[in-house]
Amino acid sequence: MDARDAHLERRLGALPAHRHREFGHAIGLLASPLGVLLAGLPPRAFAALAPATQQRCLGAWMDSPLPIVRSAVQAVRKLVQSVHYARPDVLAVIGYAGGLRHRAPALPWEGPLPAGSPADAPDAAGPVARQPLVIAPHPTPAVDPPGLVRHTAVTTDTHRTADVVVVGSGAGGAVMAAHLAEAGLEVVVLESGGWHDRRDFAEDEAAMAARLMADGGLRSTDDGSVLIVQGDTVGGSTTVNWMIMLRTPDAVLDEWARDAGTEGMTPRDMAPVFDEVERTVHARLVPDAAHSANNRIVLDGARALGWRARGGAINARGCVRCGFCSAGCSHDAKQSALVTWLPRALAAGATLYERATALRIEPRERDTGSYTSSGTPPMKRVHVAIGAHGGAGRARTLTIDAPLVVVAAGAVGTPVLLERSGLGGGGVGQYLRLHPVTGVMGRYDRPIVTSTGIPLTTVCDEHTRFDGTDYGFWIETPPMHPWFMAAALPYVGRAHAAHMTAHAQLGVLIGLTRDGAALRHSSGRVRLNRHGAVSIGYRLHDSDARRVRASIAATAQLHIAAGAREVATLHAPPRVARHAREVAALAEGSVAPNRLGLFSAHVNGTCRIGTDARTSGAAPDGQRHGVRGLYISDGALLPTAPGANPQETIMAVATVLARRLVDRHAPRAAVGAAPRHSESRDHAQG
């Protein structure tokens, strides 16, 4: 077995068992004479074909009329090419410079800003996002905080009690945990991923994806048509996202109040909440001089076209513009939940278990109280496996009895946990919203180097629509390190190698569609399949497909206005344009599954707020319909796709709901029968 085979095995090993089997089936089909026959070639084993014939075969599979063939080849292609371009010898050949830990900044948009840059304004009341960002070293040492329980420290099956169990430690769970712990409640936080901090974060996106992201960075819909990027580590996706802080548009908040029954979340209500969130995570506008070349494409292209575009605020303190936000911040500059809300929760006495997977929630008492009762809700038991998720050795069990449970496991994990607990039904698992993303590459005669600088500091919102007639789309920039670029580029063979060699001259813009304009139509769902494994399905609604096509044309137009000499889509095969007059034709390409590369890092809506339990998962206060004391606090709760990167929205909604929960339950739950930090080995006690 060579190094590439070993790396493939490691990446496959990070997948759940059912996904591992699916990859095996896909590889088996493509390697067989039947697979070659499906490419229109004489039936022979793929390995026996000459290299040129293999390339023809791959191209035929990618353009196959059979969805199962396209699904198989895209899954295998993305995996193999990303693994290949994670190898140091290959990276050296294509001229990839890597991170700043082992080299000096070489581009104007890398490293700390030069002397004379705006000073760091102190935190103060008000919209702090308007204050300048400071880019400077931040040498705070990393140590395990009090309250963190490593999975290796749990050596026996254990039972304990608490006032509140929070399942998940991302944007929703961490905010909830901080507010509840600071209100005097005994809080236990469960995180299925591991505790990783600056000691662990390496400037190696491929390696860190395998450690920090769901399914090792390979999560996707069942058919492989949408790659889903989610964090699976303490801090959740806030640990691996691109830091942009965008408030929920006013029109969306109004829409939620009108159509979903939200209360106290009007634009006027939320403005001070957004201010508070931005202060906590140190959101600051990025100075104009700090934008990377890729982000300058947005600003310069929009200026040439007369379109709206703006710089954004990011949650960072001491950012050194290394470009590795997706790999966790090794400089502790990103003010994620890992370094803001969770330390607050732990300082207030919360306990956080890493690699602790909540298996099911079991109501322990019959709920005879009214829905609006402010008394202590009935006790619930949360069944947990410690160390089962990426841990070594036998998993240990932990059971926790608590009257309050907050599920914040993400829009995939939350509905699955509820379904596994027999608490699904109605809108649980339905109405999945993804802000489906596709990209357009532009080839420039100047260096762009999308792997460098702050990944996302600009937004073009010329095509956003919040008038109730068209949800629209917006344009942003992604970081494109070789492992991800290799998977995204819809080429094979020499064409793929040529584009990877030219990676420094490739600019990449992404169009994000606000999906779900057909409010009563569920374009996607998350559920358990008949084998008990997670199943994710998604199809673009016709209206969403139109917006995706429009985003392709607009993004290509922006590239050309910024000076790109050629643009190419993520269709298989790509559609190419060299002049503005050719751009409209790019939108004519198919958006059928695995005909166009689609991605999502904004997974929302599978337990959405609503007043009708048949079409929603939670009441307007975030409480699961019919289960008093069980709350939802993550992207699953959002009534619609927010139409903006959801980090700030989720934090703000969680803040509002946490305060209501404290007002309703803290005075009684905090002095309930459960002794603080009570534990026993009597796992079987009832």
Key terms for this structure?
single chain, 18 helices, six-stranded parallel β-sheet, 686 residues, 25 strands, globular, alpha/beta, five-stranded mixed β-sheet
Give the arrangement of secondary structure elements.
Layout: H1 3-13, H2 17-31, H3 33-38, H4 51-62, H5 67-84, H6 88-94, E1 148-149, E2 158-161, E3 164-167, H7 171-182, E4 187-190, H8 205-212, E5 226-228, E6 244-245, H9 250-260, H10 267-280, E7 283-285, H11 293-305, E8 310-311, E9 313-315, H12 341-347, E10 351-353, E11 356-363, E12 380-386, E13 396-402, E14 404-407, H13 410-420, E15 437-443, E16 458-459, E17 473-476, H14 482-488, H15 493-501, E18 506-513, E19 524-528, E20 534-538, H16 542-561, E21 566-569, E22 576-577, H17 583-586, E23 598-600, E24 630-632, H18 647-669, E25 679-680
Parallel strand pairs: 1-10, 2-13, 3-4, 3-14, 4-10, 5-23, 14-24
Antiparallel strand pairs: 2-25, 6-9, 7-9, 8-16, 11-12, 12-13, 15-18, 15-21, 17-18, 19-20, 21-22
Account of the 3D structure:
By secondary structure, the chain is of the alpha/beta class. It has a domain at 3-84. The strands form seven sheets. Strands 1-10-4-3-14-24 form a six-stranded parallel beta sheet. A five-stranded mixed beta sheet has the order 11-12-13-2-25. It has a five-stranded antiparallel beta sheet with strand order 17-18-15-21-22. A hairpin with a 5-residue loop joins strand 19 and strand 20. Helix 7 (171-182) packs parallel to helix 12 and helix 7 packs parallel to helix 18 (647-669). The radius of gyration is 24 Å and the shape is globular. Mean pLDDT is 89; it is low at 114-130, 135-139, 368-373 and 668-686.
